[in-house]
Every structure is written in structure tokens, then in C-alpha cells.
Amino acid sequence: MTVYLPVMLDVQGRRCIVVGGGKVAERKTMGLLEAGAAVTIISPALTPQLTELAEQGAIVWLNRSYAPGDARGAFLVYAATDDSGVNGEVAREAESLGVPVNVGSDAEAGSFITPGVLRRGRLTVAVSTSGAGPGTAAKLTKLLEETFGEEYEAYLDFLYRMRQEIKRREASPEARKLLLRTLGRLHVLDEIRRGTFTEWDSEQIEAWIAQHREE
């Protein structure tokens, strides 16, 4: 069994190539667009949704089949056609260029796989079965949606703002560590779930920091 290294990649503005225009290519493309990638699709035909994205200028569409050299200069490549031979050709070229490649028809033929993803604002949870069952990964992701509700988006925004304020206001590393540990014990998540939480203003944040910096 291949053991994969979980990573979170910043693809904002980076050129990512999807070879194929069917439903698999559509799923890969939507995930890339959500992460802010600059997507180029190479395919003689597209699904209606991909066609709409191309017409809107959200993606670049090369209306043709894959050709040698197409993977050059890409940050990531997705081989997502319904032809395993073409997918293999794409994978071999990407590998020869040192470009990470995902192969939709054969997970182990590529250098990375795409997990099921749950997003709640700053929270990203990825689920993988190492290619054993994409459907099972989707079911597990659905279960996680029930565990991590929409309240986590507001909660993590609160934590992020507090962390930034603590770093800005406190020069002492020891005081920062103490405040961050104390921050983690607040019951803000429960308050958000109950609908009783209100955003802290600058005065409240300053008062909390002053009160807890030496506890």
C-alpha cells in the first residue's frame, strides 16, 4: 500500500492543468477554483458546467486533445480523461518534468491523490482512503459535516483575530504562550452554538489580555 504524505498546498494564482472535460475533470476543476488556482483545461469537449465556466473566463479552455509538452510549466497536473492510455501519457510526461500529477483512473499511477474535503472557513478537514474507495471517503466526509458544523467558521475567525492581537500586543514569548493556552480554554464555541456570542471589540480584547497575561 502506498503511504501518502498529507499536505496543504497554496495554489492561489498558480497554473494547474486538467486534462479531460467530463465529470471527473469537473470535480477536480471545482476544487482547484475553490482554492484560487488558475485552471487550464485541455479537452475537445466539456460538461455544461465547465463550458459555462469557460464562457465566463473562470478557466482557460484549450479545445483539443492533449499533446506532448502541455504539462510544461504547470504547478499541478490532473489526468482526468476516460482514456487510461491518455492518462498514462499525461502522467509520464508530468513525472519526467517533475510536476506532481493526479491520475483519476488509477490513483497509484500518479504522484498525489485528492482527498474528500470539508471546509468551514479557516477549517479544512481532508479524508483519504488511499485510493481504496472514493465513495467511502465521500461518506466519511459527510459524517464529519455533522460533527463540525457552521459554528466552527465563526469560532476559528475569533481565534485567529485573538491570536493576531496577542502577537501584536505582547512582545514576551512566555506571555504569548500563556495567553494562547488560556484562549483555548474559553467557552466561545459553546456560546456560538447557543447563539449568545457577540464579537469582542478592541477594548474587550485589551482588557482580556491585561487580565490573563500573568495568570
Question: How does the SSE layout of this entry go?
Answer:
Layout: E1 15-19, H1 23-34, E2 38-42, H2 48-56, E3 60-62, E4 76-79, H3 84-97, E5 101-103, E6 116-120, E7 123-127, H4 134-147, H5 151-169, H6 173-183, H7 188-194, H8 202-212
Parallel strand pairs: 1-2, 1-4, 2-3, 4-5
Antiparallel strand pairs: 6-7
Helix pairs in contact: 5-6, 5-7
Task: Describe the fold and architecture.
This protein is of the alpha/beta class and 215 residues long. Helix content is 45%, strand content 14%. Helix 5 (151-169) runs antiparallel to helix 6 and helix 5 (151-169) runs antiparallel to helix 7 (188-194). The relative contact order is 0.10.
